Automatic annotation (TrEMBL):
<comment type="function">
    <text>Flagellin is the subunit protein which polymerizes to form the filaments of archaeal flagella.</text>
</comment>
<dbReference type="GO" id="GO:0097589">
    <property type="term" value="C:archaeal-type flagellum"/>
</dbReference>
<dbReference type="GO" id="GO:0005198">
    <property type="term" value="F:structural molecule activity"/>
</dbReference>
<comment type="similarity">
    <text>Belongs to the archaeal flagellin family.</text>
</comment>
<keyword id="KW-1133">Transmembrane helix</keyword>
<keyword id="KW-0472">Membrane</keyword>
<protein>
    <recommendedName>
        <fullName>Flagellin</fullName>
    </recommendedName>
</protein>
<feature type="transmembrane region" description="Helical">
    <location>
        <begin position="12"/>
        <end position="35"/>
    </location>
</feature>
<dbReference type="Pfam" id="PF01917">
    <property type="entry name" value="Flagellin_arch-type"/>
</dbReference>
<dbReference type="InterPro" id="IPR013373">
    <property type="entry name" value="Flagellin/pilin_N_arc"/>
</dbReference>
<keyword id="KW-0812">Transmembrane</keyword>
<keyword id="KW-0974">Archaeal flagellum</keyword>
<dbReference type="InterPro" id="IPR002774">
    <property type="entry name" value="Flagellin_arc-type"/>
</dbReference>
<dbReference type="GO" id="GO:0097588">
    <property type="term" value="P:archaeal or bacterial-type flagellum-dependent cell motility"/>
</dbReference>
Length: 197
């Protein structure tokens, strides 16, 4: 009588194939999870970089000279300059911009004419393209007048006298402040205008 022999070589190959397929599936799922986390991290890093660039670069720039008018032979009466959007900058809500005038002994912060506060600047649109939405946009320009006499700490104190250096910082709600340092001319005549350097 002949003996029936069992040959399990095929089953061993099939089991190895199943184990190999299981490893491949697990590796594919693991790599998908790792790639998803990498893409998420890359996207968040990109957002952080864009936010950082938008907040560190100033969106405003001075256009033209800074002009001051003397209220007397001892004081400046106001300072005027033109603002526009810097190249690549985004629109700025002018109602949220603050202006700080500082000497070595005094600091006064001004707000927009439509803002709330004691010290206010006068904002005058310039040109044909300016819209009346309080937003300074590309190709638009506004003239800012900062009254240095009439209200506040600068009244009657002879603070901005001839040869006095002072700073003006212009701070939009988003982005870096735009600062400038100017010096009062060495001699003043009442109601005369002077370019500040």
């Amino acid at each position: 009588m002949s003996k029936l022999m069992r040959n399990e070589d095929a089953f061993t190959g099939l089991e190895a194939a199943i184990v190999l397929i299981a490893f491949i599936v697990v590796a594919a799922v693991f790599s998908y999870v790792i790639l998803g986390a990498g893409f998420f991290t890359t996207q968040k890093s990109q957002e952080v970089v864009h936010t950082g660039v938008s907040q560190t670069s100033s969106t405003l720039e001075i256009s033209g000279p800074v002009i001051a008018q003397a209220s007397s032979t001892a004081n400046l009466g106001n300072v005027q300059f033109y603002l526009q959007i810097a190249a690549g900058g985004t629109s700025v809500d002018m109602r949220k911009v603050t202006y700080t005038v500082a000497t070595t002994e005094h600091i006064v912060t001004y707000v927009d004419q439509d803002g709330t506060g004691t010290h206010k600047v006068i904002r005058t649109p310039v040109g044909q393209q300016v819209t009346d939405d309080h937003m300074l946009e590309k190709h638009e320009m506004v003239m800012i007048t900062i009254p240095l006499t009439g209200t506040g700490e600068f009244v009657g104190d002879n603070i901005l006298t001839p040869n006095t250096p002072f700073n003006i910082d212009i701070k939009p709600d988003i982005g870096a402040a735009l600062g400038m340092t100017k010096v009062v001319p060495p001699a003043l005549l009442t109601d005369r205008s002077y370019e500040l350097y």
